[in-house]
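Checked the freezer inventory, then went back to the computational side. Two predictions to log before the end of the day. The first one is the construct we discussed on Monday; recording sequence and tokens without edits.
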Amino acid sequence: MANKHPLGVKFLSLNVILVIIYDTMVRYDTLGWKVIYVNGDNEDFEYIKAQYEKSFNASFKDVEDDFSSKTLLNKNSKECVYNIAQNLELEKVSTLRKNRLIETLDKYILDHFSSIYSDNLNMAEYNLIKKIIKNKGIIDYIDSDANYELIIALRDLGLVFPIKINEVKKICLPENYIEKLEDINNNLTVLSKVKRHDRLFRLAYG
């Protein structure tokens, strides 16, 4: 693999890329799943997509009555929580135990909502959060490629979580984030930065 050169890169979402290396497709992501090598002679993109969707479906966690950020983070593996921390560029967290990592990450998100918004979100993601806030923090999950990519991107930032309530798939904002997120969503300065980031995102990814 070391002497091969990528012939193309496809962005499947904010944190997932598909690299084409001669006759081999390599899927790489930052969600804690291993790199998958797929030989182009006997596997194809649909296989990669199916595997990715299987992992995504497994991320819907059963939740009953506690929708706090710490509970929702704790439903995920330490590796997944650590990857959110990496996406937010937290330093000196790799050696932390899971509980301490969750506390550190949760505090960071609460203290940095504005910069997380302005540095990462595009308008589609911003509007999805706005919709969830209007629905008191929980909406039904609608299975579509557009929703799928938005939710992955926001989940990777620790802002929304796929959950299941009575076996029904839903998307949830942590209940202790809602009030602060609502204030930020109504902040015109933050919205202006999101719009600027959205334009740059569109220029970069089309």
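The second is the one RB wanted added to the comparison set:
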Amino acid sequence: MSNKLKGFFQKLARAFLIPVSLIGVSSLIMAVGCVFTDATIVKVIPIFNNTAVQYFGNWLTTVGVQVLHNLGIIYAISLAFGLTKEKKEYAALGAFVGYFALVKSMNLLITNFEFVKEMFPENGITTVLGVETVNVGIMGGILVGVIVSLLHGKFKDVKLPMAFSFYQGPRFIPIISLLVLSLVGQVLPFAWVFVQMGIDALANV
């Protein structure tokens, strides 16, 4: 393995620690919330059976669940941020824009072409950020994060003609991320359907 490739995987491993730490804390918050709202525990500890405690428990659970329900975009931003050496804020913005572009692009595909939607089982379609789209899960976020980090490395110092000079350098990262991941969203469902089949096959073993 070349030193360059080894260095990439080392950075990737460190970048994964960012969302993993958040997942651990959010799971803990959700678990504490469940302690206050679980019916069995409420029977044992009657003081929990009041509006204030139940609301507090539901609030904690909601806070924790929201992180777990949006792992795709969390991984996208975390990996893009963690894999870049400088001007990380542009990579993070590019990941957010790129992830949403991916989601919306797949939405456009399944909305306008019914046969694309029918390729997937019921659990193959989901709602992300309020948009019906193909369920690529965490892998979609990882893909976005890696792609944006590569785009950042290639275009962070790009020079444009004078008329467009405002958009050159790191400002170009969110723009190119939007365009590239919109295109990826038009292609990914046709590849992901085979991944989905494999997941379903393993689930039925």
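For RB: The longest strand covers residues 125-128. The radius of gyration is 21 Å. Let me know if you want it refolded.
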